[in-house]
Amino acid sequence: MQAVQDKEGIKRYLITLHVNGDSYTRVVKANTLLVNVLRDDLDLTGTKKGCELGDCGSCTVLLEGKPVNSCMVLAVEADGREILTIEGLAQNEKLDQIQEAFVDNAAVQCGYCSSGMIMSAKALLTSNPDPTEQEVREAIAGNLCRCTGYVNIVKAILSCRKSEEGSE
Amino acid sequence: MYLPDFDYHAAASVEEASNLLGSLGTEAKLIAGGTDVMRMMKEGTLALKSLISITRVKDLKSITHDQEKGVVIGALATHNEVMLSPVLQEKYMSVCETAHHMANNQIRNIGTIGGNIANAVPSADFLPILIALGAEITLQTSSGSRSMPLEDFFVGPRQSVIKQDEILTEIIIPEKGFSGSNYHKFGLRRSGALAVVGVAVAVTMEDNLCKDVRIALGAVAPTPVRVPEVEELLRGREISAALLEEAGQVAAANCRPIDDIRGSKEYRQDMVRVFTRRTLRKAIDAGHV
């Protein structure tokens, strides 16, 4: 990783992030967090900041396909890696099935946890297309909804199961 | 939340990381997942000049079974990689179950088993089960390595015998012929909570006779601890409900927990009694190690 020192003697690092299929090269400091690059440099503000300590899950993104708290990942550590954020789910202006299901099931109350919830659900359904309710609840155990709207969130995710296809 | 400034070094090898740790001194710290170090830096309880990342060091992630050594776990294996490891699921399901009940999915994808050990937090979940199973660890520098039983590693809360330039590279669970093992984490929530009390048991049963047993407790002392008094009580005895209740009482009498936000000393001791009994029962009845 290329590092340069600026006029004030602060070290900066040249990194390339692959976000939602696009590559972005940016200069960051060692203490720059992934969530801040996404929100402040790339204007991808769909990823939310909550506790900033890895407890609440609002900043969940997929790093190499796995959900992580982007507030606990240094930008330099994400160099060269694939990142998927909530903005990367819709294809050709068509919402992802999970996003549709959140709308249809009224799983969005204040909406602050929704991005993280949906990213956790996306990772679960990609690796396990037919999860049980228990598996759904475990997958979103690291995503806190302070409106406490968990019932509809779980319902929405369950409605995206492979076995539910064509049941409407 | 503000993360203070620091210098970042991405080490390509254990040797490089060890040399950096040696030359940068005590104001530098190693990170693997970094979930613990970064949290402390954000909260202002830890100040560092440099972080040395070993996430890009190769060959420290694999979990394999070696005929001579036993199960070898690379220190950089994440909690989820431990949970999903086919080798561990076959040999030591109790270790996979321990990983499953740690933190939450997002943290389990970043946090590593090596970090969980090296942080030396008394409530860390991997410690009791690995100590019960008789695990050993390898500490490496640029010039050599040493290994030791995991239970000898800890000195106090967040303190261990690791030297400034040493890096924990692997955890080895030697073949000891246990017939069952189990870890019970008693937390206030099922996800994202620290253990109030953690009890781990590894046992060798012959019909109803306890041939050998190792018991380790977490979150009830400055370090994870064995309870030899209970092990001696059970070794060579026929297991009965009364004996397991007595084992719980002896365990409670021989631990020295503290009062804190998660539970009082008395509550923790009583939970040690309950969960020592129940965890023994589960390990004795287990169909797997």
Task: Describe the overall structure.
The complex is a heterodimer of chains A (168) and B (289). With 168 residues, chain A is α+β, with helices and mostly antiparallel strands. Chain A folds into 2 domains: 2-85, Beta-grasp domain (Ubiquitin-like (UB roll)), CATH 3.10.20.30; 97-164, [2Fe-2S]-binding domain (DNA polymerase, domain 1, Orthogonal Bundle). Helices cover 27% and strands 19% of the residues of chain A. Chain A is built from 5 helices and 6 strands. Chain A has helices at residues 34-41, 97-104, 114-127, 133-139, 150-158, and strands at residues 2-5, 11-19, 22-29, 60-63, 66-69, 82-84. In chain A, strands 1, 2, 3, 4, 5 and 6 form a 6-stranded mixed beta sheet that branches. In chain A, a hairpin with a 2-residue loop joins β2 (11-19) and β3. In chain A, α2 (97-104) crosses α5. Chain A is elongated and about 60 Å long. Chain A starts with a strand and ends in a 10-residue tail after the last helix. The mean pLDDT of chain A is 96. Chain B has helices at residues 14-24, 35-43, 79-84, 86-91, 93-100, 105-108, 113-118, 126-132, 228-234, 241-253, 265-285, and strands spanning 7-10, 28-31, 50-53, 63-66, 70-74, 136-140, 145-149, 154-156, 159-160, 167-173, 180-187, 195-206, 209-218, 225-226. Chain B is globular and about 60 Å long. Chain B starts with 6 loop residues before the first strand and ends with a helix. Chain B has 3 domains: 7-53, Uridine Diphospho-n-acetylenolpyruvylglucosamine Reductase, domain 2; 63-173, Uridine Diphospho-n-acetylenolpyruvylglucosamine Reductase, domain 3; 180-285, Enolase-like, domain 1 (2-Layer Sandwich). With 289 residues, chain B is of the alpha+beta class. A 5-stranded antiparallel beta sheet of chain B has the order 4-5-10-6-7. Chain B has a 4-stranded antiparallel beta sheet with strand order 11-12-13-14, with helices on both faces. Chain B has a 3-stranded parallel beta sheet with strand order 1-3-2, with helices on one face. The mean pLDDT of chain B is 96. In chain B, α2 (35-43) links the parallel β2 and β3 (50-53). Chain B has 11 helices and 14 strands. The chains are: A alpha+beta (168), B alpha+beta (289). At the A-B interface, β5 of A face β1, α2 and α6 of B.
